[in-house]
Amino acid sequence: MNSIKYEGFLRKLSEMSEKGILSYSEDAELAPHSTFKIGGEADLIVKVHNREALAEVLRALHSEGIKYTVIGNGSNILFSDNRYEGVIILTTGMTALTCEDNVIEAQCGYSLTALASRAQKMSLTGLEFAYGIPGSVGRYGIDALKYFLLREYTFGQDGVFTNEVMLKRMNYDLANDLGNLVSRTVSMIEKYCGGKIPAATTNDEIDDDLKAIATGAAAKVEAQMDKFAFNMALEEIWILVRRANKYIDEKAPWVLAKDEAQSDRLKTVLYNLVESICIGTTLLESFMPKTAEKILGQLNAEKRELADLNTFGKYPSGNKVTEKPEILFARLDINEVLEKVEAMRAANAEPEVKYPEVEPKEEISIDDFFKVQFRVGEVLKCEPVPKAKKLLCSQIRIGNEVRQIVSGIAMHYKPEEMVGKKVAVVTNLKPVKICGVLSEGMILAASDNDGNLSVLTVDKDILPGSEIC
User: Which residues are registered as beta bridge partners of 425?
Assistant: First the structure.
């Protein structure tokens, strides 16, 4: 490792390490992953323990201009066999890691493993999905938002976010397809089997078609992930989801339940549904971890290894489903939600600026303009004009002379507030008396329609008497 290159960053890491918010290793090696059989070395491996640590590390890396990659659980995310010149940040399984205005997804699971393992070949310097959509996470949930972004847009290309398209995806894909499938399956098992998942004892061509799609899904998803086609990987999962929904309609368990002779057929249908959902949920876990956890919880099931997804029938019959299935994604009234979003936008919108209305004056030539002399003046002394509530009398140094200028600014400035200011002064006005007090120039000021007033000052330390041009 080039110690000079990382000198400043290492000092920062040492300070944070003493606080106990991270650990790090120089010239470290990652052990090969059990499935993908790839490993490698890196200049530095930093393991952060919380969001604040990640934010500090990223700021330090940016300030030093060091290449880095944010990844998930260290046992899942590895690089190719040669050395990676940069910093690998392990997030120890944390998801949705907020760093300033962005959300960095360092999601664990084989899908990101496949992505990260090819990072070097693709010359990627970081695996970051930045969600810059204000309010969307709180409004729809992180899993729904991630699904929409990864499903709707092609990775690496720009996309336009609208709440209407997002709501349609939620209603059609998440509420109707996925949510309805899980809800109907759990409810039918509770209703027809007392909540216990039965064993499958029969088989026909429709069963075989469902099984073929379920056991073939993992390979198809992985093939799409190899091409960074996240939207198509999710489509492969949804092919299984839609097929399972169609399977319910084809088999009509509610009809089978009315005929005692069809009891074995009913049990097979319900088991096949549970098994298909478990396979699909394991594939979905890398994209929607919280949703996957809820589904597996309702089915009393566990996440499977990738190698087990090409075998149908792994679910142990006899397990009991939850008695009160949770609605994963409620169907939303699009018009109602859009109205609320617009109301929120209106409430949070910046107030419309009402600019001053100034009556235009007759145009002048540049020669006319140059007849007026503007200079910088420093206010040495300021006091009210007797019997004049709006007037202040200032003694102003302009170069080698001190002039007395009367200004109508007393309603906006206290005399002591003016002392020390370096103001813009018109110096070639003919002297006049205002309320009996001689005025030898004019302090320039700006005012708006609401009666606010501000004298014009210079923003740098410039000598009094300097000409303004």
Answer: 375, 443
